[in-house]
Amino acid sequence: MSDVMAVPSRRQSSDEHLSRYMRSMRKYAMLDRDTELDLIRRTQELGDMKAMEQLIGSHQRLVIKTASDYRRYGVPMGDLISEGNIGLMQGIKKFDPERGFRLSTYARWWIRTAIGDYILRSSSVVRTITNEHRKKLFFNLSRLKKKHQGNDEGLLSPEAVTTISQELRVPEAETVRMDQWFSTRDQSTNTVVGDDGGATWQDLLVDDSQDQESSLMERDELDKRRALMSTALAELSERERHILTERKLSDHPPPLSELSKIYGISRERVRQIETRALEKLKALMRGGVMAQPVMG
Length: 296
Fold this sequence. Notes:
Order of helices and strands: HHHHHHHHHHHEEHHHHH
Number of strands: 2
CATH topology of the largest domain: Four Helix Bundle (Hemerythrin (Met), subunit A)
Helix content: 55-70%
Strand order of the largest sheet: 1-2
Low-confidence stretches: 9-13, 186-217, 289-296
Mean pLDDT: 75
């Protein structure tokens, strides 16, 4: 799968490399239903990697489009596409043709889940999320900004700040802070300020960071919480984990009806699984916290 998996790495994810990769994907044609089913059968039953490559290549438009929706989180596009392809491969392996819908419908959720999980694991991103308020804003602000302000460019108006804060039930100060972060995250610190060219943004920055000891303690606490979350999620069944991730961690949570089609169950059953998975996760998290030794 040389072409399909040759996505630019973190060090190579320039526009030039991405353009070259996307051009190379054009050789993979869209598949009709019969061809798709044959390739899935060969992949699942025979382990045919050529068939897997053709399936992945023909669905690159879906992977790239989905990855593009997450570019605002500051993660290199090459990394997003790579993670999306991993999700696509998982979807191909799990796909059941007997349910009557196309692979793209089923694989979309695996692609989004893989990308979302990667963003949450990314250290450069996770460090900006220190509480539930910021997590809500991080994954919903751009969508709500377009909804209430017409676009996601420029800073939020005071009216939009109030509306979004009320909708997400977060303090307005947090909404403003996250909006400013999104608006300035691509600004180079080496950009020259003023007409005389005598100073850059970097020169004007004030170091108001925590001292090293406090930073290490906070990072250690975050690492412990992430490890606890990963351990708790691993205790859920694959279906519980997928539904919970889609409904609670996705940028655009799908309706119950979409997940009910994927699993061939009723919407009420999906809701029950979601509720049960959330309760199990909370219990596992509490149990993990209680089981940790007290440092003194």
